[in-house]
Amino acid sequence: MEENEFLVPNRELLYWWLCRLAKKIDSGVVILDANSLVVKYANDHFAHLTEYQKEEIIDEKITILNGTLAEKKDFEELEEVLKAGVPVKRRLFHYRKSGSGFWGDITAIPFFADEKSVQFYFFVVNDVTEVVQMDTLVQLERNLYLSLEQGYQLSTVFEQICDYVSSSFYKPNKCCIFLLENNRLQLLTQSSIPEEFKNSLSNLDLSRYLVDEKTRRFLTEAVINTNIQEHEGWSDFHSVLKKYHIVASWSQPIKNHKGQVVGIFSMYFEEPTTPRPVDYIFLDRLAPIVTLALQYFKQKDEILKLAFYDERTGLRNIASFEKEMEQLSEQKGSGVIYIIEATEHQYIVDLYGRSGGDALLKQLAGRLSFIPGFQEAIIARYTSSSIIVAISHANPDQDILRPYINDLTFEPYMIDGKNVSITLKLGVAIFKGEVTGTNAIQHADTALFSASKLPGTVLHLYEESQRHSIEKELEVLTLFASALKNKEFFPMLQPKVDIQTREVVGFEALARWKSSEIGFISPAIFIPVGEKTGNIHKIDRAILKSVLEWQRERKKHGKRLFPVSVNISANHFYYPNFVENIEKLVNEYEVEPKYLILEITESIELENVLYAKQNIEKLRSIGIATSMDDFGVGYSSLGYLQELPFEEIKIDKSFTDSIAEPRMNAVVKTIIQLAADLEMKSVAEGVETEAQHEELKKIGCNIGQGYYYYKPMKLKEVDSFLLQYDESRE
Q1: 3-state SS, residue 411
Q2: Between 173 and 153, residue with greater pLDDT
Q3: Residue 187 in contact with residue 215, Cβ under 8 Å?
Q4: Does the N terminus or the C terminus of the chain have fewer Cβ atoms within 10 A?
C-alpha cells in the first residue's frame, strides 16, 4: 500500500508531522496505525536497532520483535493497552532480525487528529541492555550486603549471585562459581548448572583449560571460548556438553585484595556467544562482588568497615567522605567535588517511599562509577536526596564530567519495577592550595543551590557571584511579607497587536516590584523566591486585583476596555477552589469575564491534565479565556495539548528570536498551523524587529507582542496611550 493511501485530511497532516518528528529523534521510532497496530513508518534509528530493513518493518506488527526469551503475554498485554488508546511505558525483551536480543524501553504516545479516537501511536524504543546489566550489578551488590548481614553461608550467597545473574542477563545462560584450592577448582554453587555437568566439574584440576602454558599461572583476564564443544581442551566433556546444549563458556578470574587469583566465575551458553565490550566490563565489575563475599567470610573483622557506609544505599556516608577529604588535604592533594541531586527526588519519594529515593541514589552512583575518570572516585551519600563525589586530580580545572552528563540521564532509572526519567542538578567546586576539601564541599553546595533554580539538567561551577546571589535572595525573602502588606507589587501592561492590521487587541500584565527599602527588584529574582516559599499565588492575586481595579475605573468613566492577560503560576492554578476564587474576584470588581485572560505556563504535569481540563472548562463556562504561555519550551505539551481547551498559544520568545533560521522557522510555522487546527489563536512573544514581524505575518501568526510594537507601561501611562491611540484611529 502507498504510504498515504490510508490517510484523511487532518489525519494526513498529523501523520506528516509525526514522520518529521521521528526523523529528528535519536531513538528508534515507529508510527503505528491505531486501528490495525501495524507499522506505517520507521526511522533509521529503529532499522539500525532491530537490523531490519525499513521495507521489512512496514505493515508488520511490533510483535515482529518477539522471540524465545521475550514473554509472548507481555506483547499481547501491550497490544491490549494500545487498543485502549492510552499512553504506554514498558521495558520488554526484544529480538533483532539476526536473533540477538536486547532489553528495550518503549514509550507509546497516542495522537489524535480531529476524531475522538486515537489515530496513531508514536512508538519509541531505546536499547537499555547496558543499563539493565549495570543495574543488575547495583542490585546484586545490595542483595549481597543484605545476605551477609543476615548471616547466610558462603555457598548460599554464591548461589544467589549465580541465580540473579543468570535470570537477568540478556542471553540464556547458566552460572557457577569455583574457588581455587591447591590448584583445583571447588564448585560452590548447587543449582545453576545441570547435575551431571556439575559433578563432572567438581574437584577438577582445570589448569589445562584456564592456565597460561608458559607461566603456569591462572590468567588474570577473562577467558572466552565461543564454542567449547569443538575445543580440544574440553574434549573430556564433549558428550555432556552436547547433552545439555552447552556451547560457549566465559570465565572471569576472581582475585583477592592482593590481586591473586582465588577463584573463577563462569557463564555457560547454549549457542556460540562472543562478549561485547560492555560484557567485559560486566564481568570485571562482577568479580569484585564475589571477592567481597569471600573477604567477608575469610576476614569477618572487615565487616566493621560498613560503619562507614550508608545503611540504606550501601554508599559511603558523609563521615567516611569527610575523613577521606581530610587525608587528601593533609597530603596537599587537589581535585574536584561534585554534589549531585535529582530534581525529581521528592516526587519519587512521594510515589515510591524512601526506598525509591534510596534506589535512585544507588543507581546514580553506579552509573557514575562507569564514567571515564570516575573509577577511583570517592562517592558518598550527602543528604537524603543527593550524593557527593570527590576526584583527586592534578589538573582540577579540567571538567571531566560535563561531556558524560547525558550518560547519567539518557536512560530511565528502574524504581519499584517502573521506569523513571530524571534531570540532575550538579554543584561543582575545586579544592587545591588554600581551598581545602571542607571549603570545596561548602562551595559545591552553593553552586548546587544556584543550579537548582534552572529547569532541566544543570551543572554549575562555583563562583563567588553565586554567594552574592544567595545573599540577595535571602534579602528579598526577608522583604517579601512587608512588600505584600504595603502593596509594592504592581502590573505593567504591554500591548498585544493584530499582526495583520497592527491594531491593539489586548494587553499582558507583567508583575513588577519596587521595594521601599532597596528599590526595583527583578522578576527573575522575586518570582523564583515566591515559587519556593509558596507565596507566588499572593503575587498573582495582587497583580490580578490591580488589573481588575484598573478595568473597573475605565468602565466607570465610560472608557474602552481591552482583554488583559494575567499570568497564573502552575501551583496557584491547582489551588482548591481556584476557579471559584477567580469568579468571585471578577464579580467583586464588576468586570465582564471576557476582558480577562489567564496565562498558564507549560509546566502543567501530565498526571494533572484531567484536573487542568476541568479548571479550564469551568473558566470557559463563566467567560474567562485561557492561554498556554511559553509554548514549546517544555517537553510534554504536544501529547496532550488537544485535550486542553485553551483559547490561545503563546510562542516562546526563544522561537521568535531564531525565526530567521530555516529549521526554527519550520517549527514556528508548525506551531501556528497546529494552533489553527485546534481553533486557537497564536501569539508570538518577544517581537523586536521588522523582519520578525514580517515573517510572522507571512506565516499566518495572529497576534504579536514585544518591543517592536510597544514597551510595557504603567497603568496611568496605558490610559494616556489609549487616549492618543483611540484619537489617532478616529
Answers
A1: coil
A2: 173
A3: no
A4: C
Q: Which residues are bridge partners to 335 per DSSP?
A: 392, 431
Residue 110 has, within 13 A of its CA and on its CB side, a CA count of 20
For cell 573463577, the residue is 264
Could you tell me if 426 and 458 are in contact, meaning their C-beta atoms sit under 8 angstroms apart?
A: yes
- Cell 587469583, residue located: 261
3-state secondary structure of 222: coil
Is residue 257 within 8 A of residue 155, CB to CB? The reply is no
pTM (two decimals)? 0.45
Q: In the structure grid, which three cell numbers stand for residue 253, read together?
A: 578470574
Closest residue by Cα to residue 418 from 87, 104, 124, 91: 91
Query: What is the spatial distance between Cα 265 and Cα 162, in angstroms, rounded to a whole number?
Result: 9
147 grid coordinates: 545476605
Q: What letter represents residue 674's amino acid?
A: L
DSSP strand pairing (261-269 vs 248-255) = antiparallel
**Residue 414 backbone phi and psi in degrees, to 5:** -95, 110
CA triple 413-417-423, angle to 5 deg: 20
The number of residues making up the chain comes to 730
* Chain Cα centroid distance, residue 442: 27
Average pLDDT over residues 582-593: 93
CA dist., res. 128 & res. 676, Å (int) = 39
- Asked if the model's pLDDT at residue 190 lies above 90, the reply is no
Alpha helices in 84-153 (DSSP H): 129-149
Q: How many CB atoms lie within 10 A of CB 323?
A: 14
Residue 707: Cβ within 10 Å count = 12
Name the pLDDT band for 2 (thresholds 50, 70, 90). Answer: very low
Cβ contact 110:86 at 8 Å: yes
3-state secondary structure of 429: strand
Q: What does the alpha-carbon distance between residue 449 and residue 481 come to, in Å, rounded to a whole number?
A: 23
Q: What is the full DSSP assignment across 615-645?
A: HHHHHHHTT-EEEEEEETSSSSHHHHGGGS-
In angstroms, the CA 704 to CA 696 distance is: 8
**What does each C-alpha distance from 441 to 197, 318, 437 come to in angstroms?**
55, 11, 6
Distance CA 66, CA 50 (A): 11
Q: What DSSP element (H or E) covers 671?
A: helix 662-677
Torsion angle of alpha carbons 590, 591, 594, 597, nearest 10°? -120
**Domains in the chain, please, with CATH?**
9-127 (3.30.450.20), 132-304 (3.30.450.40), 309-462 (3.30.70.270), 472-729 (3.20.20.450)
CA neighbours closer than 13 Å in the CB half-sphere of residue 55: 2
The confidence score (pLDDT) of residue 635 equals 44
Decide: helix, strand or coil at residue 77: helix
Residues pairing with 513 in the sheet = 489, 521
Residue 65 and residue 95 in contact, taking contact as beta carbons nearer than 8 Å: yes
First to last CA, the chain: 61
- Could you give the CA distance from residue 267 to residue 172 in angstroms, rounded to a whole number? 10
pLDDT at 638: 60
Cell digits of residue 609: 491534565
| Per-residue pLDDT reduced to its tens digit, 357-403 | 999 999 999 999 888 888 888 999 998 899 999 988 767 777 778 88
Q: Which residues fall within 8 angstroms of residue 422, CB to CB, at 6 or more apart?
A: 342, 343, 344, 360, 409, 412, 413
Q: Return the CA Rg of the chain.
A: 32
Question: In the chain, helix, strand, coil percent, each to 5?
Answer: 45, 25, 30
CA distance 101 to 164: 18
* Comparison of pLDDT for 543 and 282, the residue scoring more: 543
